[in-house]
Amino acid sequence: MDELSDESLMRRYADGDARAFETLFGRHKDALYRFVRRQCGDAETAFELAHDIWLKLIAARRRFRPSARFTTYLFTLARNRMIDDYRSWGRSLPATGDPIDVEDLPTRDDDGPEARADVRSLALVQALPPDQREIVLLYVEGLGMAEIGAIADLPAETARSRLRRALAILRRQLEGSAP
Questions:
Q1: Spatial CA neighbour of 102 closest among 125, 69, 81
Q2: Each residue's pLDDT tens digit, 31-41
Q3: What ranges do the domains of the chain cover?
Q4: Which CATH number, 1.10.10.10, 3.30.70.260, 3.55.40.20, 1.20.120.80, labels domain 102-177?
Q5: 110: pLDDT confidence band, cut at 50, 70 and 90?
Q6: HSE-up (13 A, CA, CB side) for residue 171
Q7: Most exposed of 89, 98, 102, 108 (fewest Cβ within 10 Å)?
Q8: Taking residues 122-128, what's their average pLDDT?
Q9: What is the 3-state secondary structure (H, E, C) of the chain?
Q10: Backbone angles phi, psi at 113, to 5 degrees
Q11: Is the pLDDT at 97 greater than 80, yes or no?
């Protein structure tokens, strides 16, 4: 199962293969939880929301169409579930969340040294405006600009622009805090 793509696994799961779901869950549970946790800022709420997102995926398994990557589908479910949760309470996503442990941030092999240094310096990311924070959090989970745009319901160039602005803010903050 490990050699199959996420999309193939999802099709197999839709056809009744429970092991395919187990593989998908194993691949994506940590990234999904990190994204939700860093967006909502509360571990208990994040756990409940992540659980609900997986239940939504289970319920929608037969409707999945591989027109986009599985991760786009999963993180779109996550984003919509978080928005629904906050709307039901008459709130928006928190302006800031919990600090990020920089050792927990993944880097991508195709990122150059400068990009990896920028990504690993995201301990200040929680102070970003929610729309920029969302883009940065999706980026550090390894999603590309087209996927991020699809998840955030934005053109890829808008997502790229928000990422650039957020990274510029973070660089200025880091330069200002350097000894």
A1: 125
A2: 999 999 888 77
A3: 6-88, 102-177
A4: 1.10.10.10
A5: low
A6: 11
A7: 89
A8: 69
A9: CCCCCHHHHHHHHHCCCHHHHHHHHHHHHHHHHHHHHHHHCCHHHHHHHHHHHHHHHHHCHHHCCCCCCHHHHHHHHHHHHHHHHHHHCCCCCCCCCCCCCHHHCCCCCCCCHHHHHHHHCHHHHHHCCHHHHHHHHHHHCCCCHHHHHHHHCCCHHHHHHHHHHHHHHHHHHHHHHCC
A10: -60, -40
A11: no
pLDDT digits (tens, 9 = 90+) for 2-18: 889 999 999 999 999 99
Name the token pair of 48. 């409940």
Return the CATH number of the domain spanning residue range 6-88.
1.10.1740.10
Contacts of 23 (CB under 8 A, 6+ apart): 1, 2, 4, 9
Cβ contact 161:89 at 8 Å: no
- The answer on pLDDT for 42 being more than 80 is no
Does residue 63 have a pLDDT over 90? no
Q: Which two tokens stand for residue 138?
A: 């999706």
